[in-house]
């Protein structure tokens, strides 16, 4: 059957031919449609739940529409709340810190690795630095509690270097929290994030380096004028893609480390949703906060796409 | 850095000698910083509990003790949690490999009428998310999966990102493979199962790694759905619970000076570190063997992902 369809693909078919084509692809459908239904149930169907952001939702009501409509009240309640504004500030701050330090550290590591001549050494560094990416954040937070304890390694190092006079209570003071999360994220992901830059650097034409050498460029000049321009387009693409993730400041670290002492600095949108939507059973508020995040993320994604298309004409070529 | 910059201006030869050395030292420091927290945690886990309270343990235990591991390994809850962790990881990984590659195969067939529609539908899920509460209500209220083992399996059977990775790989395979099999009379399912699936081995290894690590590392689903069912707790969740209690006791120790008197012989800190090690060990063991796979997978994924 399928051979026949293959043999004359150009011929314009009527409805009958369309159905015979469908029939010939029944196995393909059998293999894909059930999975599509599964994806629909788990990824699309829950969006129906957004409707409860405009209700005073109580899960005890059997019929969804027994819940009273409240219009935009849940959103108004959110934005009239000092706590929510703090949550937005924390989310943006931590996501920007992650973005800036994550990107800079990854590029730095890639540049350093690119200069390593010994293959075995390069591979060893890569193996070691990729490792934390595979550890769960529970494990990472547990390790961070040791390292940043008041008698932990960080305090010991800073004390012995006379940078601080007495141990700092890293885990219990709000003003350190953003930077702590940033440091943990850099530690965990620097190797992994550098992969994409390393693979871009290996595709830079070697004759560019030779030409630079002939012109008398040293190592730093080669990095500055050959390597970094070589990864510019990757950098721009990743940066634009990250605009869509601006509200993704992470959840697990903040949730696991955000004890009461630092709660004003640790709560992100996701933690807030968890706290109100699940722990305090105020479903509608949680849905409204989550919906706000999803909708803004989609708008940011469109913005990023728009910027990408604009840039495509001049920068990315 | 600026120092070496100056030397560059003086002589190029000196820079060529100095730079590799500085570079190597920086990278060795980075490796040390990466490994230190891991080794530090291992050292604390082998230290005596009361002694660990004094802090300041570096890379080697000060007072050796296997008490934490003894108490951990004599607790049936540990074995139950390990069994749940292992079984959910294995089942999720197998289901994921079959379902993900099956869909990837169908979406790589250019003649498939639903190809465009389904691809769009799948890719969109990577960007649009209903959010925590609607998903929670779906799984616990509508589908009634909470407080069951199935909540570990059913919501995680399929991954869109991995599907794209696999589809990219399958599209790169020679088209003649499929066509000649078709001429020989093989149906689409047989072509997938007997020809394409075996050919995908290298990428499947990568996907298996991602899925298995993700499933092993998961603690949030236990927290959300199965917290009240101790026999369904996973290793990661045991650690998560210890995290909360040690944090509380650390706070108490900070606010009240009598930390030493209030703690028993077995401090939670060493126990916590022991669980950390136990739940990280499988990853540390498997990691070096799988390392060669994931870079190729990562590059493949970034091409179209």
Please give a structural write-up.
With 317 residues, chain A is mainly α. Chain A has two domains: 44 residues, no CATH class; 234 residues, MetI-like (MetI-like fold, Orthogonal Bundle). Helix content of chain A is 70%, strand content 0%. Chain A has 16 helices and no strands. By secondary structure, chain B is an all-alpha fold. Chain B has one domain: MetI-like fold (Orthogonal Bundle), CATH 1.10.3720. Chain B contains 16 helices and no strands. In chain B, helix 12 packs antiparallel against helix 16. In chain B, 39% of the residues are buried. About 4% of the residues of chain B have low confidence. At the A-B interface, helix 1, helix 3, helix 5, helix 6 and helix 7 of A face helix 1, helix 2, helix 5, helix 6 and helix 7 of B.
Structure summarized in a few sentences:
The complex is a heterodimer of chains A (317) and B (305). Chain A has 317 residues and is an all-alpha fold.
> In percent, how helical is the residue content of chain A?
55-70%
The total count of helices of chain A amounts to: 16
Order of helices and strands of chain B: HHHHHHHHHHHHHHHH
Question: What would you call the structural class of chain B?
Answer: mainly alpha
Helical stretch tally of chain B: 16
Tally the beta strands of chain B.
Answer: 0
Oligomer: heterodimer
| CATH level-two architecture of chain B | Orthogonal Bundle
Distance between the termini of chain B: 36 Å
Roughly what percent helix of chain B?
over 70%
Biggest β-sheet of chain A: count, sense, barrel? none
Radius of gyration of chain B: 26 Å
Low-confidence stretches of chain B: 254-266
DSSP E strands of chain A, number: 0
Report the biggest beta sheet of chain B as strand number plus sense, adding barrel if it closes: none
Q: Average the pLDDT over all residues of chain A and give the rounded result.
A: 87
What is the domain tally of chain A?
2
